Amino acid sequence: MDLADGLLDHPYDVYRRLRDSAPVHRIAGPDGTPAWLVTRYEDVRAALADPRLSLDKRHATAGTYKGFALPPALDANLLNMDPPDHTRIRRLVGRAFTPRRTEQLHAPVRRTADQLLDALGENGDTDLIASYAAPLPITVICDLLGVPDRHRRDFRVWTDTLVAPAPGTPPEAGRHAVVAMLGFFTQLLADKREEPGDDLLSDLIAVRDEGDRLSEDELMSLAFLILFAGYENTVQLIGNAVLALLQHPEQLAALRKDPGQLPAAVEEFLRYEGPALLAIRRFPVEDVTIGGVTIPAGETVWVSPSAANRDPDRFPDPDRLDLGRDTTGHLALGHGIHYCLGAPLARAETEIALAALLERFPRLESGEGEVRWRPSLRARGLLTLPVSYATSL
């Protein structure tokens, strides 16, 4: 089957059909090359933690995988690595990306959220992605890394070009975005070395572990990954959560009545409409059997946390949004050694963003205009979310 066939428009219908018919399917992947797709919860969870499924593209059979064409200086990141390199870099990053640093961001996140809501006024109509869900995380992640204000809009344009280019975007636009990002990170690292600041990137430059340190390519790739993933995933989480609440007014009313539900609600939003239809691709280092299907070494394997999170064998009545549900074990942010490094920050940002929005606007409704999804199999998120809002009922 062609993976794109119906998946962008009706992903959960497609995943339901695939789960019901077989545990593993032979497909055409996002780049058009043959691949295998895993959709059932137990199989996906096991695959995410299976050391035989490598993230290193060097294990792919020649000519079978294309993917993003990133230069080495941006490609040496955690999404392309296995142990021991992955273990080493994650250990170094952990020395700078601490829970304390995430906790220190709570107040600035709320300040930024309030400023964005102030700009909307007391009532009106807006595209909530453009006015709130997108600028909030790009501001937070740029503050975290120490990116100057003047570059923040540029970075948003670059990531959109790579992940979800607008219809008619010329093929060379992606290459130009990569070149621009490479130049940006090269200069940013040079500036931080010359004048370190109180930011994560300065800490990553300085971090040591028994004499070990990050190489130049590792630093650049890590900065790219944190900025890229930290922005993209949180935009999706905030936008998808608000849309889910607007489509389920009884759940929105319950959350307004008891804001203490917010942390649990965020977990349900992650399960119900997570930020990606597919996890990062993997390549077996030896023949592996998943769900009774043997996949040859070197072939491309895609696993779908979104499909797994709607598996009725794990989550009863999975297509129903239920903010009181037990979401233990959902896979929206991964599983195993590749579990999302920025998960605590993504959760905190989403919780703070929703709290500020619901407190500010007792009336929040779907607005005039079209809700548009990103045309991307990797980023499950919205391009537009029109809403109507008011500070009084």
Automatic annotation (TrEMBL):
This protein's name: Cytochrome P450
Similarity remark: Belongs to the cytochrome P450 family.
